[in-house]
Amino acid sequence: MTVKQTKTSPQLSLILEQPPQHIAARPLILTRSRVVTTEVFDTYWRFAAERQRIFFRKAAGIQPPWTSDPILLRYRFTNAYRAADRVSQFLLRRVQAEGPQDARSLFFRTILFKLFNRTETWIFLESKSGPLLPENYTCSSYDGALSEAMAAGRRIYSGAYIMPSGGIEGQRKHAAHLKLLESMMKDDLPMRIAEAESMQKAFHLMRGYPMIGDFLAYQYVTDLNYSDLLHFSEMEFVMPGPGARSGIRKCFADYGSYSESDLIRWMADHQEEEFAKRGIEFPSLWGRPLQLIDCQNLFCEVDKYARVYHPEVAGLSGRARIKQEYRLNAEPVDYWFPPKWGLNENVASWSASQHRLTRSA
């Protein structure tokens, strides 16, 4: 594939014949509306499928290159499924499944990890403080450990997204985040989240805290929902982040009467027919279709991809290049997903079959 350097292709018309299907108790009823797509809409589906094929080629132990797409070869993109990314896998296996399963512990460990979103930071904190549990937590000891890490030149935050600072003069960013977690625990937020009757209600509880905007609140509730603290469907609620909103703008020239959240839901609801229209065989996550969080995430990744493949199509961010280039991480991932999804037996069977193929090759 060669990178296109052409003028904008003619826009395509897409009629949303049926309103998106909402699972929430009080669904939003939409009228039929014509929306107008750009050429990036078609790229969205092709990108999702190729990124997922790369995922399976890597998981099968096939040696690189895993694609002929020069953009996917050069730059870093997350997986089509959020839960399949390395950081999410660490969260699922090390942070959530291996720790205590009571509500306070699940909440504390999940949010502590996600505040920094970096596996090395979690491992370092464990080495300094022992088991990371709410009953052992003090702001001062964790602050001291992280300050020590920074003094040694360690990065303690992931570059995946920018965490807001506390805005308090003289207070370091990580200290503000540790205070935030302490405040959540004192307010008994773990139990209030656990008792929320909907994912949207849990989102609003999280959203009520300083430094937690719409994007982080949705990401954190999604992470908590991987554990046994919450049991919501990932098709229940979605909140687009800044990158996804920019990707949506690149895919749709006219939203009609639909909101950005409605368009994400439409993508999830119509994924099978959209792949079929293009003759694309989409390798799902061992039988699990793309969920709202995944379609939201794909809009963010397509926004980045389009900066190179569709440079003439403007989004909302105004960014013209992709910052992160791909770096090979040869460490294999033993994929494991929330047991309530019912995927792990399929994963184990697939992994065993790939192992047999490797041995017989």
Plain-language structure description:
50% of the residues lie in helices and 4% in strands. The chain has 361 residues and is mainly alpha-helical. It has two domains: 177 residues, no CATH class; 86 residues, no CATH class. The protein has a three-stranded antiparallel sheet. α5 packs across α6.
| SSE order, one letter for each helix or strand | EEHHHHHHHHHHHEHHHH
Distance N to C terminus: 29 Å
Q: What portion of the residues fall into strands of 2 or more residues?
A: under 5%
Please indicate the count of domains. 2
Radius of gyration, rounded? 21 Å
Low-confidence stretches: 1-32
Number of helices: 15
Helix percentage = 40-55%
Average of the residue pLDDT scores:
90
Across the major sheet, the strand order is: 1-2-3
- Specify the structural class: mainly alpha
Give the beta-strand count.
3
Q: Tell the overall outline.
A: globular
Largest sheet: 3 strands, antiparallel
SSE layout and pairings?
Elements: E1 12-16, E2 33-37, H1 39-59, H2 70-74, H3 86-97, H4 103-116, H5 119-129, H6 139-151, H7 173-186, H8 189-194, H9 199-207, H10 214-226, H11 242-251, E3 252-254, H12 260-269, H13 271-277, H14 292-309, H15 344-360
Antiparallel strand pairs: 1-2, 2-3
